[in-house]
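Quiz preparation item.
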């Protein structure tokens, strides 16, 4: 008899198409190579001692401020100031709902599992990502890094999620496309499934949660 009662899922790259497709679209549309974006973020981090994307995901910096800082930094590398104001729009145009996983989440809820979502996200992006799937029909709780000021893999955000659901770590299966985030969940006593693709993750989840 399994004691698993609860599923906690990531959003980006699990309930959606792979994020790499969105970054490729940003690169194609803006002409900014992904490597340049990475280097610019690295330089900001080195200079400020804080990772600018993490600060954004922690809700400490508005998106507009993050993009302006990134444009400043890219200007020195590209020789012109890039247009980043459509970043969000381009990113989401390229992002598709991952229907087979979303259907499985709905089925698990139907089967009686408690359902939570734990996402590192950007405050200003909430209406966009929420419009991609029936979030509130499937998930009774959403913990979003930008609204709680904590981000995965900080154990505190997992603990907050468990506390808000009122469940113990040992009752939970955690699903994420970043292994580091899965490792943090396992450390706290959760079962974790590292999402790589639907062909791997769906059977793994079924085996754990819907055996027989
Ligand atoms: Mg993810």
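Solution:
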């Amino acid at each position: 008899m399994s004691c698993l009662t609860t599923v906690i899922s990531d959003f980006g790259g699990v309930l959606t198409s792979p994020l790499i497709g969105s970054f490729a679209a940003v690169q194609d549309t803006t002409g900014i190579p992904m490597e340049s974006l990475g280097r610019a973020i690295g330089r900001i981090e080195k200079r400020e001692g804080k990772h600018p994307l993490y600060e954004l995901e922690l809700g400490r910096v508005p998106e507009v401020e993050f993009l302006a800082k990134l444009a400043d930094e890219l200007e020195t590398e590209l020789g012109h100031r890039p247009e980043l104001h459509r970043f969000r729009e381009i990113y989401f145009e390229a992002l598709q709902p991952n229907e087979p996983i979303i259907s499985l989440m709905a089925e698990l809820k139907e089967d009686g599992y408690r359902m939570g979502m734990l996402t590192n996200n950007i405050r200003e992006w909430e209406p966009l990502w929420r419009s991609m799937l029936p979030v509130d029909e499937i998930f009774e709780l959403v913990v979003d890094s930008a609204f709680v000021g904590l981000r995965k893999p900080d154990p505190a955000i997992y603990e907050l999620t468990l506390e808000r659901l009122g469940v113990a770590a040992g009752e939970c299966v955690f699903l994420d496309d970043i292994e580091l985030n899965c490792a943090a969940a396992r450390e706290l006593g959760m079962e974790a499934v590292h999402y790589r693709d639907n062909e791997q993750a769906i059977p793994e989840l079924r085996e754990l949660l819907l055996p027989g």
